[in-house]
């Protein structure tokens, strides 16, 4: 542990009441404030903190915290608007650089207890201690100090108590467990929701920059607030006007008759920082900045003002926000109309997408519970909105359009929880981005942003669509219909051609079309007109009546062999002549159906509609294209499958030597401070730390050493392989740097001399291996994304891995479900399970290899890339034939630590 490792940037986080606090390391110039923190405590609190009520303890405690730093000591303080309100410390004793136990202490200013100050400080100490290798905290407290004992007990960490007279010795294990993450998440959720109250439930709103001329954005927002029926107090700020749209104007925020909870800033970009600072000093709790065009300096100043004064921020460069709660009627947007009240929460980064979704939700009749245009997303994010919708009591459908993620792992944990309560849908924006490639390895080439985002959405249970239209299609079905139990669909049509189109669409969407049983065929023929053909699709013919179609659909609904019904209808002269309304056969059916039904009407003008039932107790989605209906049903089937599967667990792995791996990485980076690719010997050591099997190999840097290695490694058939190595060599086959099928010493010598001659000045040695058995060549790898964390990739390997691009990906750490999905997702998966009568490969061994790779990536943030190609899978096992690892000097990052961006 070095003095440099104690450096930690300051961050802002939320207290339990939603207020913002700054967490930072103690500086020497904090002495007076820290001493004042203790001196202002009551005698009783001083006694509980120091076991005595001596005022001299305050000076000694401040001296200790501000003294020159030493090994194993860290002090963090909490402050609001420059005032220190809490201090937390840990100390290993300073005698052993590798100490694993530290003693902690905590102090919180009088009058600020029960707001989460101490808990937040301890969480940040826990994160810092783990990064330094500390595994246990200890703390002494008086047995009557119930508050601090409760704080330790409620952390979510394993805590043991030992009573020693009037004192209690607490021992806290710093396990990185899901129990602790859940506790941190729960505390964060409560604080986050409290902080959003002034933003989405403000009792008073001020529009700063409302113009007198029609066409100004501020005036448009003020108009929306007035005409939308906002029930709180509404103010306008414009020094050059007495009133705008009937709302009295005031010259400044400080001149307002009361401090607004929310200020809408529609001032020029240059004025935004100063206006935000004015709002903060006046006590405003939230800002909505619709202004666009802030430069880097203005953006930094805006966020600094929000953090300094504890204001949540939406924007800048956004459309606004709304909350359709009947008790509030808040519409602080400059959209053309007011959103229809309803149950869909909508958050977008693009104002244009926001307008499209607001219009779509209103047109479908679903409506909106709350809407936030995140804009440049300096602060409030999709994660904040998911937590708000989870708790608002009105939202049952969440729609997101996110172009970036501040903390993908935190978003994933939140989404996993929220999507079990309501569908969470997103438009997967930016799919055509080529992807950021840190190097030219197979892994980096395969790991596009599309693949990374797809892994995040799949693992979190988020329904990812490819367009706004597809999102609306899926939302209509998920809002109106029960989820299907599976992917089996039965198609009913009154026109054979429409049925064929629907069948093609279902097959292309990944749905299945089971053949009806003889019993169902007989039941349907009994109610359908003569000439009907009962297969899948069911051709009810143009002669089908409204009543016959209703009976047909109802009998299908009672059939256990299907999960959903798709009814493709076309208008006919027969139905017109008889007065039959075939659509009414779907919307007028008695009782609530337990399986989803969707209609396709090729003549329908709108892409999707929700048709009200005759009883007025629901709706039926109707699509103008069979592809749209099939896509929506496929999304619903995938959501049902995700919900039906229990949450996965990260398996325990034996034989993992994490500390040895950390030591090896640190030693290598000390010798190579800029990072780089490891040589085969260093790669092998790291793989051995995680029990990842490799094919036997030997290193040789002379011709004679290569011959000796070949003699030792030859298999029963006497053949070996020789691979050249030099720093930076990635694609050996492309460089013709591999010799296969070498027999006898003469061929080994000739191969070595060939490599030595062709790669003179580059070659540092060769790897000699026995010729591998026949098997399936696979590919496995990791890319450490700076935003998303480690991404594990798997698929078909060999020299054509990039050309065929048969890869799947999941974010680490992999659960048991993730690794199963990873193996079964690529197109080559049938080869692993014994296609064509072949024996299946060792699937358990392959799963272990991927789980160990995932563990290595999760343990080592310095692992920028891991590239295993090929991995040879046979019925007898799975082993790595060629491994490449790249390290970079990165510090551990705690993605779950509570902090604002």
Query: What is the overall silhouette?
Result: flat
The amount of helix comes to 25-40%
- Rg is 32 Å
What is the total tally of β strands?
40
Unreliable stretches, pLDDT < 50, 5 or more residues? 1-6, 431-442
Give the overall pLDDT as a whole number.
Answer: 91
Detailed description of the structure:
This protein has five domains: 9-175, Aminopeptidase; 192-465, Rossmann fold (3-Layer(aba) Sandwich); 483-635, 3-Layer(aba) Sandwich (Rossmann fold), CATH 3.40.50; 649-693 and 774-890, 2-Layer Sandwich (D-amino Acid Aminotransferase, Chain A, domain 1), CATH 3.30.470.20; 695-770, Dna Ligase, domain 1 (2-Layer Sandwich), CATH 3.30.1490.20. The radius of gyration is 32 Å and the shape is flat. The protein is α/β, with parallel strands linked by helices and 901 residues long. The model is unreliable at 1-6 and 431-442 (pLDDT under 50). The strands form six sheets. The protein has an eight-stranded mixed β-sheet with strand order 1-2-3-4-5-6-8-7, with helices on both faces. A seven-stranded mixed β-sheet has the order 11-12-10-9-13-14-15, sandwiched between helices. Strands 17-16-19-18-20-21-22 form a seven-stranded mixed β-sheet, sandwiched between helices. A hairpin with a 3-residue loop joins strand 35 (776-785) and strand 36. The chain has 29 helices and 40 strands. One of its GO terms (molecular function) is ATP binding. This is GNAT family N-acetyltransferase. InterPro entries: Acyl_CoA_acyltransferase (IPR016181), ATP_grasp_subdomain_1 (IPR013815), CoA-bd (IPR003781), GNAT_dom (IPR000182), Ligase_CoA_dom (IPR043938), NAD(P)-bd_dom_sf (IPR036291), Succ_CoA_lig_flav_dom (IPR032875), Succinyl-CoA_synth-like (IPR016102).
